[in-house]
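tool_log.txt
---
The assistant was asked to compare two proteins side by side. It first ran the structure predictor on the initial sequence, then on the second. Raw inputs and outputs are pasted verbatim so the downstream comparison step can read them without reformatting.
(1)
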Amino acid sequence: MRLRLAELEEIRRNPARLRQLSGAGGWSGGWSYRRALHFASYRYHRNGEDLRGALVYLQDLYSRLFKRNAALSGLESQLAAYAGSYQGRGQAAIDVQITARIEVTKNLELSGEVARLDLGEGGGYDLWLFGGAPYEWRSELRMPLLQAYFAIKMGVLPQQVRVGFYFFDSDEYDSECFNPALLAAARAEVAALFSEVDS
């Protein structure tokens, strides 16, 4: 069984939902203005941080997917602000639109998309998800799980990985490096939450 990392909080609140959720693991399809902005951001990085090319890509994508032009200028502004903030950080993006696949049990995998992986300070890594408006995300179970997963994937200690969000609506970054006790607590909670999957 594969579940999306984004579904973890729903399952935490209502474990009975586990029986109803299955299989998609990743993007389930359908376009939104936000999703188009994410794809334009990926294009920006994949084409050598070419903002002009990313804006043309966004305009083309928008014209093909959406009938009303009302939101386009706002999305263009957010994409330009994103590029400026990225440049201002002075850290290099290693990869974008990365699929994380976290094996929980032999019968269960948690899967999700990570927007960007940067080379961080001191040989570490910064892991970014994309969001709209800022919110309190630190209590989400997926975040320490992603920190631990990418530490293994990149061959570094968990304390060399920071996880967080870039929020398009406020043009700000927010990140955290969870301590070993919180990483262990997250693993234990996931194991308990899905203990019946293998039984």
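(2)
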Amino acid sequence: MNPGEKLYQLRLRLGITTREVEEYSRRIAEGEGRDNFYISNTRLTQLENENSNPSIYKLYSLSVIYRVKLTELFASFGIDMSKTAHYQAMFPMEKTHLASIEAASDQRVAFPIRFDPGLNPLKTSLVSRMVELWGEMPIALMASLNFAHNQFGYIGLNDYSLYPLLRPGSFVQIDSRLKEVLLSGWRTEVERPIYFIELRDGYSCCWCEITRGQLILIPHPLSGCGIRQYEYPREAEILGRVVGVAMRLVNDSEPRPLETPRLPRRS
């Protein structure tokens, strides 16, 4: 169905005439104080019967009148708004900026609604093991997270293995395709690959080395934690490499800074 036919079918479904659309758009134009929103009977007929592209203002009026999302009308004219996040990722900005989340897609993804009441927040775990009830929510920007190959982990409140690089209570994104332990190729500790490991009695998230059939879990030197060693792969399995993290920089339990005392005014 071409764009004109789509507009015609939307109008036909509501049982309104081109004259009525003209009148409704006139009211929108008056409300907005701009003639751009007005769609004449002649212009609407042209849009329905010819290969013609309306302005963004007229598309807005049509979306209001026809009770459809503006993104649906965009799609009719070959503009796929669900690709917004994909293209934004292709052109990273050099300067720090705010990133707005546009609910441009009707796609939905499973999202945790209720966590298992028996979970222990002190221990590191996979998010999928922590959730008791999953629901659905619009995915929009989250499409760039690549759910097909990713899992999500939670760093337990008692897990200081990579502190202060990864704080307890953080959520990490795990790429299950990246299981090979790299032993070189980084310049600083920030660049060193981090892995999420499943153990017999739980999980761990830290740096790794494999030597003579032993998987060595290496903590951050400032963490105060010791090196651990497991037979690999009998006692430990690498679930993947950490490729993203959501982390609070200030804990709710941390004391608020005291206000600077004001000096008394001189009389």
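---
observation on (2): The helical segments are 3-14, 18-32, 41-49, 56-65, 70-76, 84-90, 127-130. Residues 214 and 235 are 9 Å apart (CA to CA).
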